[in-house]
Amino acid sequence: MFQFLRRRLVLGLTSLALTLGGPPLTAQQAAAQTAAAPVTVFAAASLRNAMDEVGKAYAAKTGKMVRFSYAASSAIARQIEQKAPADLFISADSDWMDYVQQRHLIVPESRSDLLTNHLALIAPAASPVKLRIAKGMPLAKALGGGRLSVAGPDVPAGKYGKAALTALGVWDSVSGHLAQAENVRGALAFVAQGEAPLGIVYDTDAKVEPKVRIVGLFPENTHPRIVYPAALTAYGANPDAIRVLAFLNGPEAGQIFTRFGFTLLPRPAR
Questions:
Q1: Cα(189)–Cα(252) distance, rounded to whole angstroms?
Q2: N- to C-terminal Cα distance for the chain?
Q3: Residue-level pLDDT at 21
Q4: Of residues 151, 139, 159, the one with CA closest to residue 224
Q5: How many domains is the chain built from?
Q6: Is 95 domain-assigned?
Q7: Does 104 have pLDDT greater than 60?
Q8: Which residue, of 94, 107, 124, 248, is most buried by count of CB atoms within 10 Å of its CB?
């Protein structure tokens, strides 16, 4: 597959040169031209801290920088649909990766599930609130007239959160008292800044924000499994993206993800 991608990139750049009226590029010239630019990774907002460290580790090992853009997976998928300049996409759920795959915007053979995570109920660090996460829990009462901070309904964290609250039978009691953010880090910020008494984020988000604490974790059987799939975009023109994807699946990146609280999923066979 990787050799096929390299051939496709060379042919694409040669075609571009002809379109612009310049002489055809040799294979070496095409590879050098595309490899000169950093690989651009569009990644789910919850990956920011871990991916920044992965990028540093990759640069230290290869001497090449990686450029990151973070947002809600839903927003990224729509950007990719508009052919935004991404070489690699990492989503926080399978649905949005399926969305771009169905539109032939990723290389299916490159797709792999990297990580999983846990869903957490959080409160400001100084909050005295105590709540056992269980069916019928008094979540609305615990809000004390405030709002529950969550990611928007199209965002993976928002979908996982709604599913969990529905399974626990408390969604109807709080659905009219939500503070919806554009991504999970926005939901985290509402609680960290004291604008919401409780929020639902990933536990990895809470672990990097000292202004919040974890009240409890939602049982995994209350929501779809949290999965972070990664794939090359179908139109990306940087051959180094293959190497970055391989690094993400490798042991060095795995140690970084684990340090930030993510759980590794089985790696694809090499």
A1: 30
A2: 12
A3: 47
A4: 159
A5: 2
A6: yes
A7: yes
A8: 248
Least confident stretch, 9-18, 116-125, 208-217: 9-18
With residues binned 3-state (H G I as helix, E B as strand, rest as coil), the percentages for the chain, rounded to 5, are 45, 20, 35
Angle at 154 between CA 151 and CA 155, to 5 degrees: 45
Q: Note down the domain range covering 42.
A: 37-115+228-264
| Strand-pair partners of 69 | 42
In the predicted structure, residue 211 carries a pLDDT above the cut 50: yes
**Which residue has tokens 């990297």?**
114
| pLDDT of 232 strictly over 70 | yes
- Least Cα distance to 87 among 95, 76, 96 occurs for 76
Residue 75 to residue 130: CA distance in whole angstroms: 34
Helix axes 27-35, 2-19, angle to 10 degrees: 100
Q: How far apart are CA 203 and CA 196, in angstroms?
A: 17
Domain presence at residue 23: no
Q: Which long-range contacts (CB under 8 A, 24 or more apart) does 265-268 make?
A: 265/113, 265/114, 265/115, 265/116, 265/227, 267/112, 268/112
Q: Are 92 and 223 in contact (CB under 8 A)?
A: no
- The DSSP secondary-structure symbol of 233 reads B
Of the candidates 71, 196, 72, which has an alpha carbon nearest to the alpha carbon of residue 122?
196
Q: What are phi and psi of 131, to 5 degrees?
A: -155, 125
SS (H, E, C) 134-186: CCCCCHHHHHCCCCEEEECCCCHHHHHHHHHHHHCCCHHHHCCCEEEECCHHH
Q: Is 2 part of any domain?
A: no
Give the whole-angstrom CA distance, residue 86 versus residue 80.
Answer: 7
